[in-house]
Amino acid sequence: MSVVFILWLRELKRYTRSRAQIIASLGQPTLYLVVLGFGLGPVFRQAGNGSYLQFLAPGVVGMTILFSSIFSGVGLLFDRQFGFLKETLVAPVPRLQIMIGRTLGGATVAMLQGTLMLLVCLIAGFRPVSLAGGLMAPFFMLLIAIVFCALGTAIGSGLQDMQGFQLIMNFLVLPIFFLSGALFPLDNLPAALSFLTRLDPLSYGIDGLRGTLIAASHFSTVTNFAVLIAVAMAFLALGARAFSRIQL
Amino acid sequence: MIEVHNLSKSFGTVEAVREVSFTVKAGEIFAFLGPNGAGKTTTIKMLTTLLRPSSGSIRLDGLDPVTRQNDVRKRFGIVFQDPSLDQDLTAWENMQIHGVLYHVPRAERLERSETLLKLFDLWDRKDDAVKTFSGGMRRRLEIARGFLHTPKILFLDEPTLGLDPQSRNQLWTHVKHLNQTEATTVFLTTHYMEEADRVAHRVGVIDHGKLVAQGSSQELKAQTGTDSLEQAFLALTGTDIREEKAASGDQLRQFAQMWRRRS
User: Fold this and answer.
1) Residue B257 pLDDT > 70, yes or no?
2) Confidence of residue B246 (pLDDT cuts 50, 70, 90)
3) What is the ipTM of this complex?
4) Cβ–Cβ pairs < 8 A, chains A and B
5) CA separation, residue A16 to residues B32, B169, B235 (Å)
6) Which residues of chain B make contact with A75, given a CB cutoff of 8 A?
7) How far apart are CA A12 and CA A7, in angstroms?
8) Model pTM?
């Protein structure tokens, strides 16, 4: 247990010490929120969908968590390059504990980033519709964080260099973001697109967040919850397996 | 303390280590010497559970690293050829993480961290991030960390690579000191023959994956009719440079890994 704790603490310490990175990683979602939120707002309103800012806020919170989580998994790549990974792998500790410590640490950091982004949204004018809903939101944020930290671990375990990382960003992370319905409603989509959005785990996370924060969702809360938990289990198993197979 | 019998490791068709046998007694400092790519690091990786041997047997403190991985890992400390510190954390934090990973009880962890950091002249920098340290300081920290869990065996894979003579001298003084006071068995590799001559009780020379000689530095000199360990080493391993041959082994190994990952 203390092993899991110390590795969790390590992730947190590294996070709180890189202030520049904290700000930098909020830049992109803030840009989406402000520019798209206010830029597309009038069109969205005219189409009879209400405030785009309200709609977009849960989307950019989900986006922040997604990016932060995947980065924490890819942190494995840096640990491999700077050697710290070896230090943990020769220690008399089951690899599963190491993987759990890292993943929980990454998920906590992603939660903190998501919470900061939620604050930015509040400053920009976003208002959750109910207090009860607002209190439920962290559950969905945590689930999103766990799902993608586990995926990040699975990916990071296999990556050998930075080129691989670029590939992952362009062909996995960005599609996950764009297909999640973070930017547009999932109703009345063309069949092909609708199918793809249903395959994207982030869709359920962001939809769940919308359900709690603005009381409007595409799927039911139970569906969102169930899908996220199932995917989290599957990805955790995948991540643990990939991590246990790392060779140096 | 270390018993190796007919140890072999091949990567595909390349035999990196061939039928190597040797013993290292408890409390001994053993220097494992050889040209680049001779099989030193591969041997250390097998001794330290990072690689499985293709054949042959290893006993560390009577235990087999293949079947008793965790028990074996508790018994040794290792300083790798390349750095393995978390550079964003402080020296103290690196020590604490190591202590927890090796299940050192808290009181002992704090006390030993302090003693070792003081011994290696790092105490007044303990709260600075490792990325602000010089190469010599990082090396010292790695070695201090390796001693933290009171290992029975300490593996040092080219610990003095890239250090100035002052740091090297100081480092070996500390290692010898701990070898005497804590009776730690030390297994080291180095390219500096005079270091091996000065520090090691016994020396093993490996070339092309085969152990070509072992004994005290005196014995090797007598055996080859030379008057320094460096000359004895050259007499045993020849004078041609093997950089290329060595690299091909590594490349093949990487290639094999890549292949395994894709298929």
Assistant:
1) no
2) very low
3) 0.84
4) 70
5) 43, 38, 56
6) none
7) 9
8) 0.84
Residue B108 has pLDDT above 90, yes or no: yes
pLDDT tens for each residue of B10-48: 888 888 888 899 999 999 999 999 888 888 888 998 898
Interface of A with B in 95-114 (CB under 8 A): none
Note the pLDDT tens digit of each residue in B137-190: 898 899 899 889 888 999 999 888 877 888 888 888 888 988 998 889 999 998
Tell me whether B109 touches chain A (CB under 8 Å).
no
Residue B113 forms contact with A (CB below 8 Å): no
Inter-chain residue contact B88 with A18, CB threshold 8 Å: yes
Confidence of residue A191 (pLDDT cuts 50, 70, 90): very high
Distance CA B226, CA B205 (A): 15
Which tokens belong to B10?
Answer: 């091949």
Q: What is the dihedral of CA B37, B160, B187, B60, to 10 degrees?
A: -80
Chain A residues in contact with B93 (beta carbon < 8 A):
10, 13
> Do B78 and A90 count as a contact with CB atoms less than 8 A apart?
yes
